[in-house]
Automatic annotation (TrEMBL):
Domain Shikimate dehydrogenase substrate binding N-terminal: 6-88
Catalytic activities: shikimate + NADP(+) = 3-dehydroshikimate + NADPH + H(+)
Function: Involved in the biosynthesis of the chorismate, which leads to the biosynthesis of aromatic amino acids. Catalyzes the reversible NADPH linked reduction of 3-dehydroshikimate (DHSA) to yield shikimate (SA).
Active-site annotation: K65 (proton acceptor)
Known EC number: 1.1.1.25
Name of this protein: Shikimate dehydrogenase (NADP(+))
Source organism of the structure: Fervidibacillus halotolerans
Pfam family, one: Shikimate_dh_N
Residue span(s) of domain Quinate/shikimate 5-dehydrogenase/glutamyl-tRNA reductase: 110-190
Top-rank EC class of the record's enzyme: oxidoreductase
Oligomeric and partner information: Homodimer.
Pathway involvement of the protein, from the record: Metabolic intermediate biosynthesis; chorismate biosynthesis; chorismate from D-erythrose 4-phosphate and phosphoenolpyruvate: step 4/7
One cellular component (GO) term of this entry: cytosol
Amino acid sequence: MDRYGVIGDPIDHSLSPVIHHQFLFEANIEGEYRKILIPRSDLEKGIQMLRREGIKGFNVTIPHKEAIIPLLDEVDETAIQIGAVNTVVYKNGKFIGYNTDGYGFIRALKTVVKNLTGMKIAVIGAGGAARAVYFSLYKENVERIDVANRTIENARRLIGKYSPENFSEALSLEQLYDRMGNYDLIIQTTPVGMYPNVHELPISLNCLKKGTIVFDLIYRPLETEFLALAKKKGAIVENGINMLLYQAARSFWLWTGIDPDIESARKKMMKQLKGA
């Protein structure tokens, strides 16, 4: 039996097993995909354990996406540039790290807007997910990408890694609030508003203009308070479901060489989310 999984802390909330068990079923592969709790302080021991178990591949979630990089045998160039790994493949005796978050994000975003050329974009957050989003958008011929974060220095660090002068600006959340009407697309990459803290907001939307696209990477709940308020303001809203599915499908392809159909996995996942 082929073994796969997802590591993180916390990990109970993950819906990755629902998706990947469906992918395995559809591909007629005898395998299992499990949640693996590895505390931050035990990451190195956890990776050694996975090597001993003979796992064929695993996903990586909070808080390990950055810390895992020096513990791997090889890291794909895109993951190096992003500075975060969310997928590990076991191949020829080596653990090789990849990042499928950026791929999943762009695929999901293009279900809402086909052409990103010339768009003015604000990203909320400066963590691993924000870096994947920024890096993937940077290659899409957008006009500018500003990054707003509670700690502005982290936003400056993210921007400094990728962008030429005058392409991006690091903002405080207060500055983003004042300029919110300037953007065509606002992407919320932080865990603020995630279950169980569903009433939290990363920023007020009082200055949001009608018709802005608002993308919240959270998928639990399906509609965060942030998205609900954006919808009331006349925004076009998107949650993290499609991104989760597309990045998962890319991970599955890296492990198996099979490009799965996401629709059956979507039905399984939505059934679980609505029953939760």
